[in-house]
Amino acid sequence: MAKVLIVDDSAIMRRNLAAIMGRGGHEVIGEALNGMQALAEYGNLHPDIVTMDITMPLSDGIEALGKLLGRYPDARVVMISAINQKDRVFEAIKLGAKNYIIKPFEEDKVINIINQVLGLK
Question: Which of 4, 46, 78, 95 is the least crowded, having the fewest Cβ atoms under 10 Å away?
């Protein structure tokens, strides 16, 4: 079981991802509403993996990813993206994101990507 930090400004998305993680055998140990909170929560919680929405207020997912990996180079981050954000996804992968998930979620795909990034497959 992996410890997961979910970063998304949408309560519905956080709830949906948390439910999927739970059914996939992982534990959500924290949530953040934006990139600034994500940095603080990561430092406090030290999760095994982070799901990070690309579009958020204050500090978006790309900016937060860069700062997070600057402080914690071994962090495993999976980006969450809307289907029309392909360029931003590629930017995140270049910065060091381990993979990405496109909304709307397909539960099996989410769990497979998380497990693959964690080395469980």
Answer: 46
Separation between Cα atoms, residue 65 and residue 45, nearest integer Å: 16
Q: How far apart are CA 101 and CA 105, in angstroms?
A: 7
Which pTM value belongs to this model?
Answer: 0.95
Residue with tokens 């497990």: 115
Q: How many CB atoms lie within 10 A of CB 94?
A: 9
Q: Which class does domain 3-117 fall in?
A: alpha beta
CB of 100 closer than 8 Å to CB of 81: yes
Within 13 Å and on the Cβ side, how many CA atoms surround 119? 2
Q: Region 99-115: what's the mean pLDDT? A: 94
Distance CA 33, CA 25 (A): 23
Q: What's the pLDDT tens digit per position in 36-87?
A: 999 999 999 999 999 999 998 888 899 999 999 999 999 999 999 987 888 8
